[in-house]
Amino acid sequence: MGKSQKKRVGKTGRRHNPVRVPDDHLGHGLAAAESAAPAERAAQVLPVMQKLSAPDAGDRTWACSAISNLISNDPGTRRLLQGKNVVGQLITRLSDSAEEVVVEASGALRNLCIDGGVELGREMYNKNVLSPLRTCVQKISATLDRILSNTPVEPAEIPARKLIYPFAENVLTLFWCLSETSQKALTAINALDLAPFLLAFLLNREQIPLPTVVAAAQCLYVLTDDNPPFLEAVRSSGEWVAALMDAARTGSVLPNGTTNGTPKKSDKGKAKEKDDPERLTELRVLACGILRNISPLPSLLPAAAVDIDAQIVLPTILPLLSLSLPATATRALELQGKAQTKPLPKKGQPPGTDHQSEEERELDAVERRCRTLLMALEVLAGVCAVLPDEVVLRPDGEGEEEGGMDEDMDEDMVADAADDTEEEDGEDRTPVLEATLPLPSVLQTILALPAQLLPLIPATPISYLSPSPVPPITSALAQIHLRALEALSNLLLGAAAFGAPVPRETRDEVWRVVWGIVGSGAEEAPKVNGVDGAATNGTLLVDPSKAAETKIPEEVREAAVGVLWACLESGGASASAVEVQDDTALKLMQICASSADEDTRARCVGSLARLGQRTDPKHREENRAIASFLFGPFTPPFTSQSAPLTLAHMHGVIDMFSDETSPNDGVFAEGGYLQVMEQARHWLGREVRRWKGRERDEGRGMVGEWGRFVLWRKSLPALGEGAGGEGEDAMME
User: Fold this and answer.
1) Which stretches does UniProt call biased (Basic and acidic residues) (predicted)?
2) Packed helices 643-656 and 598-611: angle between N→C axes, nearest 10 degrees
3) 559 is in which domain, residue-wise?
4) What is the CATH number of the domain that holds 617?
5) What is the pTM of this model?
6) What local confidence, expressed as pLDDT, does residue 5 receive?
């Protein structure tokens, strides 16, 4: 019998803010914030808040700058300030009459939004931060136009010109963070028509400080990510696309993650921003990401003829994967040990002055290197997502079927099996893939990537440490591990979809490394039915009180499960495609029982179905337990589940027992699963009627396939001899 079709996995949500430093280890409420904030900083909060409304502009500037210093890597103090409405007061200061106050207020809001993530972004949006930001954009555009056109400076605009670039960087970063807050905020930002404003920084990048250009690119990258109104505006301009192509091709990336050349030193010994190799690399990676977001380009543009992935993206990203995370973590800890807490700024100190030590500047460079790698992995995950489009539709039953499933079938029986599909046109149409698919050139290139991605997956000592002595580095490392897993999963699924060969030793090494994440968090359970643990209605019963405490985030473990599933899928038809641990099936059942993520549970089911096809006699008892698990929801009393999970169980059942010649096929007969499937068929039809959209369409197709599978099974000689013709007639009735 032919294999059942797998549902293509798509994007499920917007990306994480890559500079977000989590503070989940803190409690909630003002009391928790006060206890978490250092005593000396907590005592400084009230005087700083009072100065925000002072009549003297110098005091207001100082207060805004002090807030930025107080919240630096200090979530406790930040929450304390939140409880005193610091967001509302800073938004008011964006309309201040003094230019220095506006710049410092925007900087404080920027830092709050970065550190506070979605929670702070929502608060800012609800307090109407976009209204003064719209005015800020107009001021920045006007000043920037005068600077770029070499218009003579007037005395009244000297302060604005002096602070234009730090101000612009703050505003750009605010838009970047706010766009990831909610769909409502994104829609409001789309209405501001920011594309010309943002692209102006890239078009004039040779005349604008590099950090400001990078901030504009960050904002562009987020706003073009799965945001049709904005990305359509960007790719409609040949000039804008050409600017992005040029930015992506500037310089060449070295294995250490920098561009060629060394930073030139100014008279004061500080590297010129224009020659900062790490920022140039960051800009290149962002430009690559934006180009992928707006692809495919309009055919009339010259850039449409360029293979962006092969000619631009991969040459930029692949050298970055050589960064050693253990060495990076060690160096970050060394630098943090030498750094000191920032003092509050002195009154009259120029806005934007950081007075960083050499250690602090190097720590910032380490963090930026990690963030660039994180961005590169995010783009690479998209490149690796080369699953073929489901472009061919044909009625089920048309075309070839392996194993002669429909041969010698009674036409009325086949029609009865399809009754529950309820197709309006009388045909059950299911997405299927082309029988033969050419191997994409990009897939041929990235098939060698597992060796580069695997070193980025194991955790360093500080990757999941909470609280961490270096929160920004810890946050970046945790996200790097996650993105590396996602890229690896996409790569293996693409290889499986196109039948591309993945060497056995590669699959074994992937499984060994990734199982270290998955296997470390499964709970212990009693031995039942010949294996450890009990499966009831497709759910393993475990004692929550025995759950092992772990610092690995759940989203990382879920991504690791996806890699394991993809690893098994990439093995093709081989039931022993990977050398797995003895307790693999048990732990996958445990994860399926405990995970709140439906996709993760479905991948566990798919992996179990693969493992259940092993033919070695030593796996017989384990295969029986897997079969019991897969048939659990379909055994009376039937168990309603989500559509993805029900479909995963249906696929799993058919995949596991689609070869009647397998030595493992005896498990099907021993369990009496033919009768179970027959009893569940009409119940499944009723379940599918409750589903919506694509899930309902796929469910209809699977119910039809389920019915035909039953008929095929009953037609097999080994089963037919015991049932006789009367049994088949009874089933037809």
Assistant:
1) 264-277
2) 10
3) 511-667
4) 1.25.10
5) 0.80
6) 38
